[in-house]
Amino acid sequence: MKRNExxxxxxxxxxxxxxxxxxxxxxxxxxxxxxxxxxxELKDVSKKIDKLTDRMDKVExxxxxxxxxxxxVETxxxxVETxxSGxxxxxxxxxxxxxxxxxxxxxxIMPIKTELKYLKSNLxxxxxxxxxxxxxxxxxxxxxxxxxx
Length: 149
Hints:
By secondary structure, the chain is mostly helical. Helix content is about 85%, strand content about 0%.
């Protein structure tokens, strides 16, 4: 045959046509076997994807639970912050009250201390020193008590 001529079955011998058809049938069988293998592998991949999807669904459900619990923790933490803020204000207020109280006590004690010094220095001969010392000790105890509180 020449190059430009297309071979037809009429122009070929019968044996050659049979061989050619058997070759095509064989090629189709090989193609079909390959297609069956691809189909099996695709089913396996599909099963694996289904399993992964199920696992992802379970993880998503667990994450939703974690989000809910985290929201609850955030709410409780906000409540704790609010209460601590109140406690902090109370402590500051109490501290200021105590400081003010100590200043008032100190102002009350200062004239007594001054008077005691005066009495001690000016009235040594006239006053009973023992009574003066007792009075001085009582003032010191008062000072200690006021600063301890």
